Structure to design on (695 residues):
């Protein structure tokens, strides 16, 4: 970071980054936004296609969706066309028009775009004959399916990078070379014709649930998020958070946590959330004295938490409806406590760090007036209120999206008319809606391509049964470790944990590692779909409730965004702060301890999710209270501050106590309280004595 853009970490003023610099940072860490510059004819054509795609989805949300395969094929075909218009093969943003690149688009891209459209629309075209072709594909079916797979791999590579294409290729190789696999992974194998038949012509592959949910639900909520931002809802969240929390110690960091939680609840991207709110909060945190890497980490941890926050949850809430077959209200209720725990963990560490460093809050002159903010911006909350109300009423999610997007357009018209008069307001509204619809469709491109490619992974899992083989391997390893550890602790006069409990613990740990590794560099929705196919069956084999298993793998998949070495959200925050990226990533992971600990708690005590089988308020209270205390105590240990600085051995004591407290067991919680009592007394007694002497 150059000297003219920022100052040293001594509390001096730093300059805010320009819009171009912020866009460059977002593009650097989020390949989904690396759009190339097109010559003007293609720019207009691409904009028109994107606008019409949004119009199509807006219309179908309100007036009905066509037959599923037709709807999915149309959405995928248009998406692949625009992907090859918008993303270059090797990151070159501008190409000079020539005979090799008509209108600045290389011939290979023209070919891939056309191939993508034709192969995507082929399945809907033969839909009436599909029942007779599945299992007995014609040569043309195999050819078109092969084209689709190749085009999809390249589309996702361009728009997201290598991680997901590599995973898809490995899964297809596993399906083909099944006879050569070692041990339990061996299977009869499948010919290329059988693989293409399963992935292309059936509903278990590319045209399956993943693409269907994107085309039916996710697109609409991406569009709603864009439109809600254009009417000022994001800025309102930041202003309200500033008014509520800015005055307290370390105020800008607390504003970051609250605003990112609110904005993230309607956003589908951790990185976009980090850049949007971080542009304001990160410089403010640095200005009052937070270290640069810590400021970047706070914003990244809070922004990533937005992906688990109702009502949208990075659009995963609507995927869960399909996979779990439960009402949306059930999904959102289950998400409330874990989301609270994550943000509580970040807030506690932010507060303790502020106390340790002696940081101030924001001055009255720096803070907006809460009532004034709400009075001026209340209208922008109306679409969100409509969204939540329609969702809770039991109507379909796409109906909720239709009404809330419509409300955004109405609010936008009112704002434009107030600012520019009737004629100017109408013109301004048309322009804003046009731009918003283009941007909404643009932001859905990579997610759609990724979901279609995830269908390849799911298809291989259903074709080969590899998900259950992985589950058997992991649980067998965990059981071996559990048996060994149980035998090693047999000399103790009491039993720490039973073998089944230890098996579950080790299985959860191994599953968490799998989820983080496979979640690196993959967006939230695609991430969840992969985790459900590969990781959730592991927990299912041990009798973990399906909802619990889905939430566990979802949270650890999302945690990849702040887990080095591929902590993209943290690296984007570091780019704004001018901080060491790896240091910011490590700190963001530490700040996300609530998200890391709580899944273990609800795996052992599902009552924490409220809507699971066997729920009791007693079990919930024990799990909730223990988790809150455990997160606070662990935060104190890693921050080196409880009520005052800690000795090194006290920090070790607190870590042990925190692990006991978060265990949803009455005896463990009681022991944890006993363990921390001396540390608390040692810190509080001098203060109490000083106050009594002063009194």
């Amino acid at each position: 970071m150059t000297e003219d853009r920022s100052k040293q970490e001594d509390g001096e003023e730093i300059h805010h980054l320009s819009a171009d610099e912020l866009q460059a940072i977002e593009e650097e860490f989020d390949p989904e936004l690396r759009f190339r510059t097109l010559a003007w004819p293609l720019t207009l054509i691409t904009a028109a296609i994107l606008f019409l795609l949004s119009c199509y989805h807006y219309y179908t949300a309100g007036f009905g969706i066509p037959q599923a395969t037709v709807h999915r094929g149309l959405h995928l075909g248009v998406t692949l066309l625009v992907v090859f218009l918008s993303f270059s093969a090797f990151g070159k943003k501008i190409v000079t028009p020539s005979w090799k690149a008509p209108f600045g688009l290389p011939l290979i891209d023209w070919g891939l775009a056309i191939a993508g459209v034709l192969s995507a629309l082929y399945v809907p075209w033969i839909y009436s004959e599909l029942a007779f072709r599945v299992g007995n594909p014609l040569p043309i079916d195999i050819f078109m399916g092969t084209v689709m797979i190749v085009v999809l791999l390249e589309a996702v590579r361009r728009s997201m990078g290598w991680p997901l294409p590599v995973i898809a290729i490995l899964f297809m190789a596993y399906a083909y070379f099944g006879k050569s696999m070692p041990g339990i992974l061996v299977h009869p194998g499948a010919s290329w014709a059988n693989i293409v038949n399963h992935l292309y012509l059936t509903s278990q592959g590319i045209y399956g649930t993943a693409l269907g949910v994107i085309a039916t639900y996710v697109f609409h909520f991406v569009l709603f998020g864009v439109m809600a931002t254009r009417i000022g809802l994001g800025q309102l969240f930041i202003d309200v958070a500033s008014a509520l929390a800015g005055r307290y110690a370390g105020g800008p960091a607390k504003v970051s946590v609250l605003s990112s939680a609110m904005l993230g609840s309607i956003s589908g991207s951790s990185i976009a959330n980090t850049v949007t709110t971080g542009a304001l909060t990160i410089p403010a945190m640095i200005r009052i004295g937070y270290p640069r890497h810590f400021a970047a980490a706070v914003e990244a941890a809070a922004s990533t938490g937005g992906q688990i926050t109702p009502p949208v949850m990075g659009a995963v809430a609507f995927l869960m409806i399909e996979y779990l077959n439960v009402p949306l209200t059930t999904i959102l209720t289950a998400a409330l406590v874990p989301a609270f725990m994550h943000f509580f963990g970040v807030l506690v560490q932010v507060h303790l760090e502020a106390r340790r460093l002696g940081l101030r809050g924001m001055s009255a002159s720096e803070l907006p007036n809460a009532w004034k903010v709400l009075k001026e911006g209340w209208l922008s909350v109306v679409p969100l209120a409509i969204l939540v109300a329609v969702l809770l009423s039991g109507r379909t999610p796409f109906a909720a999206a239709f009404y809330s997007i419509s409300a955004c357009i109405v609010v936008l018209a009112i704002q434009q008319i107030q600012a520019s008069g009737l004629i100017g307001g109408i013109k301004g509204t048309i322009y804003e809606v046009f731009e918003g619809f283009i941007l909404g469709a643009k932001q859905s491109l990579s997610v759609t391509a990724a979901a279609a490619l995830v269908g390849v992974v799911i298809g291989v899992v259903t074709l080969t049964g590899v998900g259950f083989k992985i589950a058997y391997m992991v649980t067998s390893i965990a059981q071996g470790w559990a048996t060994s550890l149980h035998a090693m602790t047999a000399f103790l006069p009491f039993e720490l944990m039973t073998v089944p409990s230890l098996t579950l613990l080790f299985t959860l740990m191994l599953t968490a590692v799998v989820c983080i590794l496979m979640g690196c560099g993959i967006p939230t929705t695609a991430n969840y779909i992969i985790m459900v196919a590969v990781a959730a069956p592991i927990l299912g084999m041990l009798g973990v409730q399906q909802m619990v298993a889905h939430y566990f793998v979802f949270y650890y998949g999302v945690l990849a965004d702040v887990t080095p070495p591929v902590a993209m959200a943290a690296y984007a925050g570091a780019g704004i702060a001018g901080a060491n990226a790896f240091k910011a990533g490590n700190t963001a992971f530490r700040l996300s301890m609530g998200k890391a600990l709580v899944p273990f708690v609800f795996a052992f005590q599902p009552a924490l999710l409220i809507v699971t089988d066997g729920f009791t308020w007693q079990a919930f209270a024990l799990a909730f209270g223990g988790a809150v205390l455990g997160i606070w105590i662990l935060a104190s240990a890693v921050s080196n501050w409880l009520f005052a600085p800690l000795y090194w051995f006290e920090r070790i004591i607190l870590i042990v106590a925190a692990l006991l407290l978060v265990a949803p067991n009455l005896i463990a919680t009681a022991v944890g309280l006993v363990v921390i009592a001396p540390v608390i007394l040692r810190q509080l007694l001098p203060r109490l004595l000083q106050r009594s002497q002063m009194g």
User: Anything to note?
Assistant: Residues 1-13 have pLDDT under 50 and may be disordered.
